Amino acid sequence: MCLHASSSIFYIFLIIYRYADRSYRTHPRGLIIYGQATVVPSSAAGGNVSSTTILSILAKGFSNSSKSEPVPIRNLVGSGTTRDLPVANATSNVTMPRCPLIPPNLVGPVIVSKSPPSLSEMEKSFAEVKAGGIGRPADCVARHRVAIIIPFRDRPQHLQTLLYNLHPVLLRQQIDYQIFVVEQEGTEAFNRAMLMNVGYVEALKERTFDCFIFHDVDLLPEDDRNLYTCPEQPRHMSVAVDKFKYRLPYNDLFGGVSAMSREHFQLVNGFSNVFWGWGGEDDDMANRIKAHGLHISRYPANVARYKMLAHKKEKANPKRYENLKTGKKRFSTDGLANLQYELIDKRKPKLYTWLLVRLTPPQPS
Ligand SMILES: [Mn+2]
């Protein structure tokens, strides 16, 4: 289907245009819908590109461009507006243009692979990723500095699969990113929210990211038009997940994959630290967002799609409802404000920055 490229680019442009223009629609129940949530581009069927194909395309592109030669500037597809002035690149003396508003190499729907090659093969094939899981466009200055925070424990196979599927998407999106895997030490109940707070704090020790994406280890993006960036409002990114028949289970859902700017995350005092075990922490964040006059935004369900890797059900935290109910009175004291942890280890293998942390249960507030 030759319509594919132009229609998907048009579609992403439509999303960005609506967002930039603030002409989005407000859903009666508080949702923000960009574009038409019900329209599925007809290109979906013919537009699939496997991650291995993409890898080989990427690899070719990179091996062809020798470092001493000027890299041709890609056309600004679809913008139709003024070209940005070149920006000096801090790492070299070459002046590079800002990346186009719409990444020109997006493919739309991608075939998700649940069986990645060995880690060493992956490390070789992602030649353009730097130690610590850092990627940035080679021929333009990224518009977004994004930290991807993955709370983690006991799921190495899931992590490997996520990295295999996520890096190519992020590279095509031309963002300046770093993947942080925050692992909880010990056998206490898992505290996803606290790990994400730790990821936020530790990422900012590396450099000033302006956008944070909190990412479950078992969700694999199915469409690279689902940009890993932070729009004007906190954004819930995993709108349609195969496990839930690609339907949003409830309107205020903020779990799975979500994006918040540094300003907004700071404003709401991060996540609550009191949710040990499964459930509730994402709903508490949704409450924080609303309490601060913000709202949850979403891309259309045909773009914000994920596949979930299978795992056995986590033990739900019996106190989650109670914590949720009383959450409001802790918004200002429970979160980044009283976060306590010990960084046990930090390493930078090729495909991610790994942080091992011992969480200190928060003092009653
Ligand atoms: Mn899960």
From TrEMBL:
InterPro entries: Galactosyl_T, Galactosyl_T_C, Galactosyl_T_N, Nucleotide-diphossugar_trans
GO annotation terms (biological process): carbohydrate metabolic process; glycosphingolipid biosynthetic process
Location within or outside the cell: Membrane
Molecular function as annotated in GO: galactosyltransferase activity; metal ion binding; N-acetyl-beta-glucosaminyl-derivative 4-beta-N-acetylgalactosaminyltransferase activity
Membrane protein topology class: Single-pass type II membrane protein
Listed EC numbers: 2.4.1.-
Enzyme type, top EC level: transferase
Every Galactosyltransferase N-terminal domain range: 99-231
Transferase recorded as keyword: yes
Keywords tagged on the record: Glycoprotein, Glycosyltransferase, Manganese, Membrane, Metal-binding, Signal-anchor, Transferase, Transmembrane, Transmembrane helix
Domain Galactosyltransferase C-terminal: start-end pairs: 235-312
Cofactor(s) required for function per UniProt: Mn(2+)
One of the record's GO cellular component terms: Golgi apparatus
Pathway: Protein modification; protein glycosylation
The protein's role, per its UniProt record: Catalyzes the transfer of galactose onto proteins or lipids.
Sequence similarity: Belongs to the glycosyltransferase 7 family.
Protein name (Swiss-Prot/TrEMBL): Beta-1,4-N-acetylgalactosaminyltransferase
Organism this protein belongs to: Cyphomyrmex costatus
